[in-house]
Amino acid sequence: MTNPLYDQLFGKHAGKNTPFLIFQDGSILTHAAFLESAAQIAHVLTDNGMVAGDRLAAQVEKSATSLALYAACAQAGIVFLPLNTAYTVDELSYFIENSGARTVVCDGGSKTLLDPVVSKLGARLETLNADGSGSLTDQAKAKPPEFATVERAPDDLAAFLYTSGTTGRSKGAMLTQANLLSNAATLAELWRFTDKDVLLHALPIFHTHGLFVATNVSLAAGGAILFLPKFDLDAMIDLMPKATTMMGVPTFYTRLLQDERFTADLTKGMRLFISGSAPLLAETHRQFEERTGHRILERYGMTETNMNTSNPYEGERRAGTVGFPLPGVELKITDPATGDTLPAETVGQIEVRGPNVFKGYWQMPEKTAAELREDSFFITGDLGMIDADGYVHIVGRNKDLIISGGYNIYPKEIELILDAQPGVRESAVIGVPHSDFGETVLGLVVPDSPETPDLDAILAVAGTSLARFKHPRKLVLVDSLPRNTMGKVQKNVLREQFKDTFATA
C-alpha cells in the first residue's frame, strides 16, 4: 500500500454506493461520492502548492465537506491540524505560527479577522462554511473527482493535535499514520463494529474523540454515520431508532436521561453506547442501565495516544473504571518520583506504550524527552491504579488538568490572564464538580490591597482572550491562597473547600 491511512480508511471504499453520511433530513452521502469530494479538495491543495508533509490548519464547523478535507489531506500526504471552533484569533495565531501551516481553512465569518494573521505568517487562507460553501469548494467544483494518492509510510505524520501545556504554551502532539490506523483497527474489532453499524455522531470533529475515534472506527468497519452538526437533544431522540451505536461525553448521557422521551423502547435497536473524554458518574451508569437496559462502555484516552484502555464489550463494564489496556497497548503504574513500577492496587502515575503512542511534541524536544521515555513509555500525567482484577482506575491528574464537557483545560493558561489584570495580586484556577459538565472552571482571586479588582471586567477580558469552554464560570475573591512548606499553592485544599460551589447547577 502506498498510503496506509488513506488506503485502509478511505480508499477501500472507492466506488461503493453504500451509505456513509446520513443527515438529519434523511439525505445520504455515499462512500463513493464522499471520496470524489475529497479528491477534488486534494487537487485544490496540491494545485495551490502544498506537498506531502506540509501542514494545513482547519478551524471550520462540522460538515460533510470539513470531513472530506481531512480525507483530502490524508490522500495528499498533508498533515491535518483540526482546531477547536471556539479558539480566539490570539490562540489561532500561535497554532498557525508554531505549526508552520502553509494553508489555513476557516469559516467565512472569520476571514476578515484572520486575513492579517495568515498573511503575516506567509500562509494561504481559504474559507469553508458550515453549508459547504466557500473559496475551497468554489475551486474544488472544477477539479477532477479522482486524485492520485500520494505515497506515505506508516511512520509519516498524519496529524497534529494541540494540547495545552501547564505553562500555558500549547504543545503540538505529532500523530503518525500508524498511530491513527492502529487505534481505529483495534477499536473496531474490540467494539465489534461492522459494515452493518450505524453510528449516531454528535461529537465535534476537531477533537480526538469525534474524528480519530468515532469517524475512523466507522470508516475502518465500513459502516454508516448519522451525522449531526452538534448535540441536539431532539435530533438525538429522533434519530436513535435508526442507529446501532453511539459515542458521547458524559454530558450527552445526563441530558438524555433528563428527557422523558428517552426510554428502553427508544434504544431497543442499539447495541452499544460508549462514553469518554471525562469520567462518567457511577449514578449516571446506574440510571442509564435502569432506564434502558444498556450498560455504557467507558474507555480512556488522550490527545497524545488516542485510546489506551476500554471496558470489555463482553464481560463486566465496571462503573468508576476505564477497563483494561487495549490489545497491543502496555499500561503500568509508576512512582512519579522514581519511575519504578508499583504493585497492583497502588496509586501512581499512568504510563502507556504501544502503536497508538504519538511521535513527540512538534519542535519541543525537551518536552518530548520529559514525557516520552527512551523505552517509548509515555508519562500521561494521570494518576491511577490497577485493581486485583486488572481494571484500570483513574483517580486524579497530577497536572491539575480540568476536563469540562469533554474539553481539556489547563489552569495556568487562565491564571496568566487573571494575574495580569488590575487589582489582582495572584490567582488560582481549579476544576470543581458540575452536574452537567462534570467539572467547570472556578477562578480564585487574591486582591492587591488596597485596590479591589473588578471581577466583571476581568471576566470580560478572559472572554476575549480565551475560547468559551475555558472561561471561568465564576470568580471568587479570597484573602490568600493555601500553600505548603515549599510555597506551592495547595489546589487540593481549594478543590475541597469550593467543591460545592455549583452543587445545584
Walk me through the structure.
The protein has 15 helices and 25 strands. By secondary structure, it is α/β, with parallel strands linked by helices. It has 3 domains: 139 residues, 3-Layer(aba) Sandwich (Rossmann fold), CATH 3.40.50.980; 199 residues, Rossmann fold; 96 residues, GMP Synthetase, Chain A, domain 3, CATH 3.30.300. A 9-stranded mixed β-sheet has the order 2-1-10-9-11-12-13-14-15. A 4-stranded parallel β-sheet has the order 4-3-5-6, with helices on both faces. The longest helix is centred in the N-terminal third of the chain and has 17 residues. It is globular and about 65 Å long. The mean pLDDT is 93.
**Distance from first to last alpha carbon:** 53 Å
The domain tally reads 3
CATH class of the largest domain: Alpha Beta
- Quickly give the CATH architecture of the largest domain: 3-Layer(aba) Sandwich
Unreliable sequence segments:
none
Percent of residues in helices comes to 25-40%
Shape: globular
DSSP strand tally: 25
Main sheet attributes: strand count, strand direction, barrel closure: 9 strands, mixed
Q: In CATH terms, what is the fold-level topology of the largest domain?
A: Rossmann fold
List descriptors.
30% helix, single chain, alpha/beta, Rossmann fold, GMP Synthetase, Chain A, domain 3, 505 residues, 25% strand, four-stranded parallel sheet
